[in-house]
Specification:
This protein is of the alpha/beta class. Helices cover 36% and strands 15% of the residues. It is built from 13 helices and 13 strands. Helix 1 packs across helix 13 and helix 7 crosses helix 11 (319-331).
């Protein structure tokens, strides 16, 4: 089969790009279609020799830095791709990728990271954090997001088979599109062997420093526990703010090389996670090093952390709830089985992801009368 893989945009090598990488390994002759491609040269190796097609947004003014501002044009742009020569269309979608136009003789399988978050249940949070919660600009933004929602629902009809990255997203797909989906968690890079590290007395969190990750709550909690240490790894627009917020027992390291991140994951008492994520790759990466996770118990994290076996949950996104969870974690007399935690994380390995994805695509193709 001729295969087209649709990806929203290529700008960083992050979680969605890990999924794209596995799709490309599954279909080594596939062509890539994406709104814009500004991926740095040092991050492009996983693309190999695959042909990359971009939309007209690629050539618009300031697209490299402000491509998201062209959201109103994205539905039009994604519909301009000519996919008529392909048998299988495989979209990896968290914005508009699933909206490509396909014909009745083509199979369209969508791996859905989420329906467009900021147009649906996260709209109030998006408007608030963008300073668009009141005034004329707010009214314009709400009109645009209303149009995006109508378009998003309509184009769901063009998808033959949905795959969700978590049970949380499967519920969102059902509520937004009225469609059922199969859950396949995204691939996570797992170390081949568990390093023989000695556990230290600090906790760790690693994330891009943006508002919804709620790193501020974790830092605030540890500020109120001066006898406990926290290491924060990651960069982002809130880096300086987090450094100012942190007290002496909290180390905000910013971006760190992979080996430094892995050393901290392997040595920490636990990994602390306060976001409501669609899935959450970082907690699985921590578990891969045998490290238990203390997490906000909502969202995709419920698919990757087993209460009492690989971690524990807290109920509210608040400093008080995190403090209570740390106290419970430390008073629990159980001995965490670090090897078992690592084995659990191993079930999210890329090979398993590819095999499950291959099976679902084959089943969808068979139902449509195509050979998978």
């Amino acid at each position: 089969m001729r295969v087209a893989i649709i990806h929203d945009w290529l700008t960083v090598n992050a979680g969605a790009e890990k999924v794209l990488k596995q799709m490309l390994l599954l279909y080594p002759h596939a062509e890539i279609f994406t709104l814009v491609d500004f991926l740095p040269e040092e991050d492009r190796s996983f693309l190999g020799s695959h042909k990359v097609h971009t939309s007209f947004i690629q050539k618009l003014p300031r697209a490299r830095k402000s491509y998201r501002s062209y959201l109103p044009l994205m539905p039009l742009a994604i519909e301009q791709f000519d996919l008529s020569g392909f048998d299988l269309v495989l979209s990896s979608s968290y914005a508009v990728a699933k909206g490509v136009l396909t014909g009745p003789d083509q199979v369209h399988v969508c791996y859905c990271h989420s329906p467009i978050r900021y147009a649906w249940d996260l709209q109030p949070q998006y408007l608030r954090e963008s300073g668009l919660d009141r005034g004329l600009k707010s009214a314009i933004a709400r009109i645009i997001l209303s149009y995006i929602r109508m378009w998003d629902v309509r184009t769901a009809n063009g998808v033959d088979h949905f795959i969700a990255n978590s049970t949380f997203i499967a519920r969102r797909i059902r509520k937004v599109y009225g469609r059922e989906s199969v859950v396949i968690p995204p691939p996570v890079d797992i170390p081949e062997t568990l390093p023989s590290s000695i556990r230290q007395d600090y906790y760790v969190t690693a994330s891009r420093l943006v508002p919804y990750k709620r790193i501020d709550l974790i830092i605030e909690a540890f500020n109120r526990m001066p006898d406990r240490k926290l290491v924060v790894i990651g960069s982002g627009p809130m880096l300086d703010q987090m450094k100012r917020l942190a007290k002496h027992n909290v180390s905000v390291l910013g971006y760190q090389p992979q080996e430094v991140l892995e050393k901290h994951l392997a040595e920490a008492r636990a990994f602390v996670f306060a976001a409501e994520e669609d899935f959450g790759i970082a907690p699985v990466e921590a578990q891969a090093f045998g490290t238990p996770v203390i997490a906000f118990g909502k969202g995709g994290i419920l698919d990757s952390v087993i209460e009492g076996e690989t971690g524990t949950f807290f109920e509210c996104q608040s400093a008080e709830s995190i403090i209570d969870a740390i106290s419970r974690f430390e008073s629990d007399l159980r001995q965490w089985d670090h090897a078992q935690i690592a084995r659990h994380a191993g079930t999210f390995n890329p090979n398993s992801f590819r095999e499950r994805l291959r099976t679902e695509i084959s089943a969808a193709s068979t139902l449509a009368g195509k050979e998978g």
